[in-house]
Design goal:
The protein has 263 residues and is α+β, with helices and mostly antiparallel strands. A six-stranded mixed β-sheet has the order 3-4-2-1-12-11. The chain has a six-stranded mixed β-sheet with strand order 5-6-7-8-10-9. 24% of the residues lie in helices and 24% in strands. The chain has a single domain, classed as Endonuclease/exonuclease/phosphatase (Deoxyribonuclease I, Chain A), CATH 3.60.10.10. It has helices at 14-19, 22-30, 47-51, 91-94, 124-143, 177-190, 195-199, and strands at 4-10, 34-38, 59-63, 74-78, 84-86, 99-104, 107-113, 148-153, 192-194, 226-231, 238-243, 255-259. Mg(2+) binds at residues 10, 39, 153, 155, 251-252. Residues 7-252 form the Endonuclease/exonuclease/phosphatase domain. The record marks 155 as: Transition state stabilizer. Belongs to the DNA repair enzymes AP/ExoA family.
Length: 263
């Protein structure tokens, strides 16, 4: 696995997405070595049925929400068998199906669906004080062993350039000073790089368009809240990072990162 392409996509319900053939388009056009899916909304009992519908990936791993049906959930689909796959091993997060960690020979891959604070910001304390704090510990623990690639829907607008217009949205989930400040703290304490922003420092690119605004995409009113982050040791090995805004099927679009010479 010297060269590797990783794609990550918040599918907003995997069963629904598969009916639209949208995942097939991503796989056919990108052929990612590893495909990370967020907000799968699967139940554990449905996993075997889904597994058969994506035959391109011989190794498929799912973390489903046990807290609520049709909620959250992540998956890692890979062509190469990992050394191991585990959850975050923190029960309060794992019961919502938030994280999977796959170990490969030269890196760890962590796929997450970060909790949304909600329309009324009711989960702000959980998100900032518990989730964000715990994920920093998790990331740094794995980075002590190998470089880490961390991807998923992070539910945060990092900088002003990551949204079409931040004005008037500071009280919206993903845009609050608390969430943005906490994400900056995560980047600082883990020393990880935002792969897209590292390669494209001045480019505006959106991974999410709100369904509440039916003309959002037409008007270019998007947000970038999906990320692939990487340990600084991988900085020189990063060759590409981009968003596939042409692939529809969810309110999010797939993001891709490519690394070379990982051995």
């Amino acid at each position: 696995m010297n060269s590797i392409k990783i794609a990550s996509w918040n599918v907003c319900g995997l069963r629904s997405l598969l009916k639209k053939n949208a995942l097939d388009k991503l796989i056919e056009t990108e052929n990612p070595d590893i495909l990370c899916l967020n907000e799968t909304m699967l139940q554990t009992k449905n996993v075997k049925e889904i597994d058969k519908l994506i035959p391109q990936y011989h190794y498929q791993y799912y973390a489903c929400s046990e807290a609520r049906k049709g909620y959250s959930g992540v998956a890692i689909l890979t062509k190469t068998e990992p050394i191991s796959v585990t959850t975050q091993n923190i029960e309060k997060h794992d019961r919502e199906g938030r994280t999977l960690v796959a170990e490969f020979p030269y890196f760890f891959l962590i796929s997450t669906y970060v909790p949304n604070v909600g329309a009324e910001l009711k989960r702000m304390d959980y998100r900032i004080d518990e989730w964000d704090s715990d994920i920093r510990t998790t990331l740094n623990s794995y980075q002590e062993r190998k470089p880490v690639i961390w991807c998923g829907d992070f539910n945060v607008v990092h900088e002003d350039i990551d949204i079409y217009d931040i004005r008037g949205k500071e009280c919206y989930g993903c845009c609050t000073p608390q969430e943005r400040g906490s994400f900056r703290k995560t980047l600082a304490e883990t020393r990880m790089i935002d792969t897209f922003r590292f390669l494209h420092p001045g480019e505006k690119a959106w991974s999410y368009f709100s369904r509440r605004n039916v003309k959002a995409k037409e008007k270019g009113q998007g947000w970038r809240i999906d990320y692939v982050l990487a340990s600084r040791e991988l900085e020189s090995k990063l060759t590409d990072a981009y968003t596939r805004t042409d692939i529809e099927g969810s309110d999010h679009h797939p993001i891709v990162a490519v690394f070379n010479n990982l051995d």
